Amino acid sequence: MSKYLKFIKPYTLYFIIGPILMLTEVAGEIVLPRLVADMIDIGTTASGGQWFITRQAVIMIGCICIMIAGGISGHYFSIKAAVNFSSDLRKAVFDKVQDFSFKNIDSFSTGSLITRLTNDITQIMNITRMGLIMAVRSPGMLIGGIIMAFSINKSLASVLLVLLPVLAISIFLIMRAAMPRFGRMQAGIDNLNSKTQESITNVRVIKSFVRRDREKEKFADANGELCDATLSAMKVMVCIMPIMTLCMNAATIITQWRGGNLVISGALDVGSLNAVVQYITQILSSLMMVSMVIINSSRAITSFKRVGEVLDTVPDLTDADAKCKDKKVENGKVEFKNVSFRYHTSNAENVLSDVSFVAEAGKTLGIVGVTGSGKSSLVGLIPRLYDVNAGEVLVDGINVKDYSLEHLRDGVGMVLQKNVLFSGSIAENMRWGDADADMDTIRRAASLAQADGFVTSFTDGYETELGQGGSNVSGGQKQRLCIARALLKQPKILILDDSTSAVDTATEAQIRKVLSEDLKATTKIIIAQRISSVIDADKIIVLSDGKIVGEGTHKELIESCDEYKDIYYSQSEKQAS
User: Fold this and answer.
1) pTM (whole model) above 0.85
2) Helix (H, G, I), strand (E, B) or coil at 315
3) How far apart are alpha carbons 178 and 237 in whole angstroms?
4) How many whole angstroms from its chain centre is CA 508?
5) Phi, psi for 455 (deg, rounded to 5)
6) Angle at the Cα of 471 (from 468 to 477), degrees rounded to 5?
7) What span, in angstroms and rounded, lies between the C-alpha atoms of 200 and 207?
8) For the chain, which ranges sit under pLDDT 50?
9) Helix, coil or strand: residue 353
10) Which of these, 453, 415, 408, 456, lies nearest to 433 by C-alpha position?
11) Do the Cβ atoms of 280 and 148 come closer than 8 Å?
12) Closest C-alpha among 248, 274, 246 to residue 260
């Protein structure tokens, strides 16, 4: 729990003031039954009278006003402490996830990370708020009530000596049974979130393949599992209230029976009997509140552990040992030296094996190969989305591990195989490449990517709002917007990972012309399925099973590389047919 102290420290004053102010409610709860007892026992006698009853009523009204003021203030500061603490915690978890490498992210499902950022931190906030409100109030009422009850009549108060151990043992057993059930419930929420996110994100694919019924079944299964896990936890939780109610009623009946006999015998006043009953009720009520805090804590403990797992995860890809942190990418020369790579999530063979090549600054390098040959994995090593297992990747003669991640990635513009746009306007999406870009700069980048024409055809132009993931533009339009975003960044190295597959050949030819004429100082690395996309490249490398099997210009490869010839002629035949 020590890891959470730094999030509490800025709000220490709130964490202290809140519980202290709740003491006013405790004091009132302890004093009021005694005042009522005196009003009955003394006010109804000749020595008391109407004046005494009026005085006691005024004192009681004053106590209630103080209790209200203190209770409201205590709740306010407790809520302020809990909300601010959880807000900072949520930000820290989100920031930590942003520092994760792909390997770290792979160790958590997306749905699980969302649950930890939302549901789990909400649980932590609720238990923090509840704990602050009850931290002083419940123990204060418990201790104060016991003292006052025993001070009035030890014989009547002794009923607590039997009931308190019964309640304590019951609460312990319920908490021990509830904790693992809450763990399963949170895991069920993870699973449901993952299924929901996947189904909603891919709703177009689901509809096009007529898989709606299957997705309903998958959701129903996940929802049923969560329902079962929740019911399992709640079955334990519902036991606490009947036990508390039984003990409270039993205590009241026993106290009234024994106290009534004492009143009849003259050993106890009616007001004192009433006060003892109220104190015993307060004691059991405070125990009920404590038990609810404990039970909810069992769920919150699970959430604390789950959030802690994210905070404790050490990003396996950092620039802590970088030797040239102030160095920026200046020319864009890329060199691979005997690089081998495999994904950590698999025990399979290397995705890349002993790969070596050079992409000269300002030149165009094409990469071709069949699906699964390692093309995307290769370019992902340049901005250090992953680290090599053997060999080294150099940019401007410097190992990419010796750059700061920020400077390295600032120098590399990537248009990924899976194009991603964000909710917001087209202009806002474009400014991911340059946050300070004006509209003229944005329009120029869009024009270079052959996107300005269709953007200006929209009613709102560059202020057109995009749906989540760019759902309201076509695949080709999405690709051109992503290319424009990368161009706006003005990178020294531009990587296009099959980024023109959804555009027509005429548009692609225009984009290739732009890359050749307007980005002469930028190193272009183009992954393509179509040979036509890289036919004019200064150098083309051919990958097969993670190895380079051909390297040269188009003309050289046609003469020397069988794999390249097979790809080229198969595509030529398709075009001819």
Assistant:
1) no
2) coil
3) 7
4) 39
5) -65, -45
6) 125
7) 11
8) none
9) strand
10) 415
11) no
12) 274
